[in-house]
Design brief:
Helix content is 58%, strand content 15%. It contains five helices and six strands, in the order αββαββαββαα. The chain is of the alpha+beta class. It folds into two domains: 100 residues, Ribosome-recycling factor (Topoisomerase I, Chain A, domain 4, Orthogonal Bundle); 68 residues, 2-Layer Sandwich (Gyrase A, domain 2).
Amino acid sequence: MVDDLVNDAGDRMAKSVEATRAEFQTVRTGRANPQLLDRIVVDYYGSPTPLNQLAGVQTPDPRSLVISPYDASALGEIERAIQESDLGLTPSNDGKIIRLSIPQLTEERRKELVKVVRQIAEDGRVAVRNVRRDAIADIQSLASEVGADELHRAEEKVQKLTDDHVGQIDAALKQREADIMEV
């Protein structure tokens, strides 16, 4: 019973780490990456729809993205959503596709993006700690059924899992910061 709680906590922490890594990919570096547009939500016929469900995104070269909408009538809404996003990109529309030129990042913009990535990492750490808190509360609720030694060992395992997963987030953060600061 206690081992099941510890294993469940480990699985949930791993999912938090993966979600944080996926969120890192949506932050811009100096290279074109289709995942940059994963956070873009388009108002499509009155309902918010992720861009990747409305259009295909290709990377013809390291400095540009091409967005090909499945429905040509959505072109204007996609363009508007990109302009209103925090990416700092200006789309050019030729009537069939949208081209995004990825300019070289300035030093100031790189520092801003590093702050964004650090905030994403902190949110990931908080998610892992929340899993730890819930797992320890669940373990404590079993106090009447199991011995104090087993409870203590389970809490230590959960803490070790927490430390491991926070370390994974920190390593991913360090890698992403290096990618952003690379000229």
